[in-house]
Description:
Blueprint: E1 8-14, H1 22-30, E2 38-46, H2 58-66, E3 69-78, H3 89-111, H4 124-131, H5 133-141, E4 146-147, H6 156-160, E5 166-168, E6 174-176, H7 185-189, E7 195-196, H8 230-244
Parallel strand pairs: 1-2, 2-3
Antiparallel strand pairs: 4-7, 5-6
Helix pairs in contact: 1-2, 3-8
Amino acid sequence: MTFDEYDLIGFGYPIHAFNAPANVLGFAKSLKTCGEKKRAFIFKTSGEPVRMSDVSSLKLIKILKKRNCIVTNEYQYVMPYNIIFRHSDEAAYRMWTTAQRLAPVDCREILEGTPRRVRKMFLGSFLAWFLRIEYWGGRVIGRHYKVTKDCIHCGKCAKNCPVQNITIEENGKFRFGKECLICMRCSFHCPTNAIKISLLEGWKVNGAYSFAPPEEGVPPQKDKHANYCAKAYRRYFENAEKRINGKR
């Protein structure tokens, strides 16, 4: 596959262990070298706006550069976790509405040709390289996922798997292969919370967020994770408001 017929190319992904997911890197490697230099942008999502997330694109940028595709713009949007812990409904709503308001600002910047690259932290590339052990870990841990008797055999897990790692056999049994990305789409979207995710079971989050605005007169949820990366979240939302209001 080549992008010779396009002037601008975008790549988007959820951050996995401060890296791009393995299937995203695999797709980038499958691309043919462009005949002429192409401009590209990256947008990514993560559960926390820490500086380490900025290095997640280093490997992807390196792969694309070899294919004559130069990344000029890079953006990160904070979205609620689907593993580790569940964000409060109020936090999820704020993340979603902020991303919706930021996206047009960022699109305009890309189309106007104004570059935006993030600053990389010291030793970030080394840490990102080390954390790519998740690629191997996913293949091992994912093989030990289990389905409980609560399963209603809707097949949603297999349909949602981005790498077709889940097979439902004729006898109704589930087989988990060796290609798991630990993306958690299967366990997160299971309507009966019937998938056990092996060593990561204690971090499992099940059930979609509503992203609905808080109801008037209803006290906010008690957020036991309110202090988690509090400074980083505050900085993210403050900077987002400044960009939305055209101040930077």
